[in-house]
Amino acid sequence: MSRTLKKKKHWSGKVVECAVSWGNLGDFGTVVEVLGGAELGQFPYLGQMKLDVLVCHVGKLPYYGDVLLEVNGTPVSGLTNRDTLAVIRHFREPIRLKTVKPGASPAFFLQTLPPAAVSHEPPVCKMNL
């Protein structure tokens, strides 16, 4: 008897790309809230958005909670919130965003590390001789 294995879909197949602009209302941070960041042990993700101001030229507008992967081809996962906003400010509009919806449990992408998991001391290696 042979069993057929179900092929699981990879999350990269759910990546959404869009090109957005927001007119003359300042920078991107005034129209779309970017939350999370490496300083919190999180991926950067999108918060509240002013949907009446955002214009999507290509693709589909992202949703609240979508994880931000790239801005104009520059990867932002692993950056602090401040660095992510600096990358966004560097480009003129429209900007291309690559986002992905969090997994079945949004807490999976957005969870923070427990305080005990973060250590500022170098690891100690013990050798058994």
Automatic annotation (TrEMBL):
One of its GO terms (biological process) is signal transduction. InterPro entries: PDZ (IPR001478), PDZ_sf (IPR036034). Residues 65-103 form the PDZ domain. It comes from the Eukaryota. One of its GO terms (cellular component) is cell-cell junction. CDD domains: PDZ0_MAGI-1_3-like (cd06730). This is PDZ domain-containing protein. It comes from Champsocephalus gunnari. The lineage of its organism: Eukaryota, Metazoa, Chordata, Craniata, Vertebrata.
